[in-house]
Amino acid sequence: MNTHHRRSDASGDLLIETHDLKRRAGQMIQVARDLPAPEKLGVDMIGVPEGSPIGLDLRLESVIEGILVTGTATTTLAGECSRCLNPIEETTSFDLQELYFYPDREAGEDAYRVSGEETVDLEPVLREAVVLSLPFRPLCMPDCAGLCPECGVNLNDHPDHDHEERIDPRWAALRDLGTEES
Ligand SMILES: [Zn+2]
Ligand SMILES: [Zn+2]
After folding, report:
1. Dihedral of the alpha carbons of 50, 51, 57, 63, in degrees to the nearest 10
2. Tens of pLDDT along 113-153?
3. Residue 147 C-alpha to ligand 1 middle, in angstroms?
4. What's the gap in Å between 154 CA and the centre of ligand 1?
5. If you ran DSSP here, which 8-state letter would residue 5 be given?
């Protein structure tokens, strides 16, 4: 792992300075930044491994109510196929869009806020975007054939694998000795 941690708390890198926007509607800044993934970004079966790079490509626009953040986060997902249990690793992009309200603006309880020090904290937004777009049942490929329900052989590697109609288990044992490579 060659990510350099300048801070022990990786989430600090997800704080974005918005001072340059000076609260003038119509102002815009671009932020491109690579940072290590914070811990536990994902769900049990698939997620972004802690410390693996996330590339942020964002636009911060000053609007009347606050700061509108739009853009993408590109990163690598790692996990396990829900059918065949093979490891999955794929590069993917998440769309981010969130309005951060200025502290003195009225907004709902769970609205995101620009902090007093003129920063926006991207971590909760990134978390939400990642978790919402993760596949509920991750697959190594769209038509993964899974495992044989009878013997557990990976059907992707053995497309012709078949159990003929139930044969006497003693015969099956003999046959397996001859054909099964483990
Ligand atoms: Zn699979
Ligand atoms: Zn089988």
Report:
1. 60
2. 998 778 899 999 999 989 888 888 999 999 999 999 999 99
3. 8
4. 8
5. -
Judged against a pLDDT cut of 60, whether residue 28 lies above it is answered with: yes
Distance of CA 21 to the CA centre of its chain: 30
CA atoms of 115 and 103, how far apart (whole Å): 7
Instruction: Tell me the two tokens of residue 19.
Output: 């001072």
Helices (H), the chain: 123-133, 169-179
First-residue to last-residue Cα distance in the chain: 33
* CB neighbours of residue 21 within 10 Å: 20
Instruction: Please give the backbone phi and psi of residue 173, each rounded to the nearest 5 degrees, phi first.
Output: -60, -45
Ligand nearest to the CA of 176: 2
Which ligand has its closest atom nearest to the C-alpha of 80?
1
